[in-house]
Amino acid sequence: MLGGNFWANPNGKGFSQTCKDVNGDGICDLSRILDANNIDYLPLAKEKLPPKSVSDLKNKSYASGYINWTWTDPEDNDFDKVQIYINNKYKTSVLKGIQYYRAKNLYATGHIRSLRGQWIRAETSTKPGRTVQHGRRNDEMH
After folding, report:
1. Which of 55, 87, 110, 135 is the most exposed place for a label (fewest CB within 10 A)?
2. Which domains are assigned to the chain?
């Protein structure tokens, strides 16, 4: 489908940036009227769909003190980060392209939240801890 112009302002409040597009066809529901002789009947609307979720989430490696998660970012142009939550608490955001996170000092179930509101659950935990003797780990004993 062809449309008219995309009406934008640097402040993000241009006609196309704020118009309603109830049916999601990419065309604003109302025409953009500049004056009686200058009307854009099919002004373009800003895409309002959030990016897709990450995929291929894996527990790449783990030890007694950490878990390494890896994933594949979606190809959406408006995808910019992954939000990491552990035990339902926000920890950090990982920028597009990095595609890994090391969770440290925990025994937990972690989640990665997509911007579409979907949760990808990583049912992983740290490796069982080692016995400590006299302030040293067993593998440090001679």
Report:
1. 135
2. 1-48 (no CATH), 55-122 (2.60.40.10)
